[in-house]
Design a protein that fits this description.
- With 190 residues, this protein is mostly helical.
- The protein has eight helices and no strands.
- The longest helix is centred in the C-terminal third of the chain and has 25 residues.
Length: 190
């Protein structure tokens, strides 16, 4: 899909994005996406832990971009694409039931008050949880991500991060408390 030697390859992401939204030329979108497809692949590989599934996801995401780009105002394409790729992977994992990410695993708040909570509300809560995770201090975010999302044990988190066992336990405990506070604040704003 790479357009080597093309005049497009010298243009900025913003310029290519603008060109695509006005012309809907898939070659332009292809050039823009190719620049960042390696990052997309590694995001997918992080979640799927499977090279072939990750390669397939890169292609599926390109197909989704054809429509998604037109529906949103994008300020920073690589950052936006990272979030789109991450959300795609999480949705795939949820729908395949390989992992069940429950907000209750992170924080204890009364989700059972609304037993008829519909799918859209659950997705909104998961989306809010992901935003709260991103707000955590880096060491807490890394520890929470490895422990809960990637389902690593304390010892594996220590080996991966180089943090001490006491630090890992502290980061996870403090991270859970910060997530609870963040989720409660977001509930108050609704």
């Amino acid at each position: 899909m790479k357009l080597n030697g093309s005049s497009l390859s010298k243009e900025s992401d913003e310029s290519l994005l603008e060109k695509y939204t006005s012309s809907e030329d898939l070659n332009v979108l292809g050039e823009l996406y190719t620049r960042h497809s390696e990052m997309v692949y590694y995001v997918c590989l992080r979640y799927f832990k499977d090279e072939e599934k990750s390669k397939d996801a890169v292609m599926q995401l390109f197909e989704q971009l054809i429509v998604k780009i037109k529906k949103q105002t994008i300020q920073d394409f690589p950052k936006w694409l990272y979030v789109v790729a991450k959300n795609f992977c999480l949705m795939e994992l949820r729908s395949s039931k390989k992992i069940e990410i429950s907000t209750d695993e992170f924080v204890e708040f009364p989700t059972n008050l609304h037993p008829q909570e519909d799918y859209a509300e659950k997705e909104e809560r998961l989306s809010q949880l992901e935003k709260c995770i991103q707000k955590l201090p880096e060491k807490q975010r890394i520890s929470i991500d490895l422990f809960f999302i990637n389902q690593k044990c304390y010892k594996e988190v220590v080996e991966i991060t180089g943090f001490s066992m006491n630090d890992v336990k502290s980061y996870i405990q403090n991270g859970k408390r910060n997530l609870k506070n963040c989720m409660e604040k977001s509930d108050e704003q609704i």
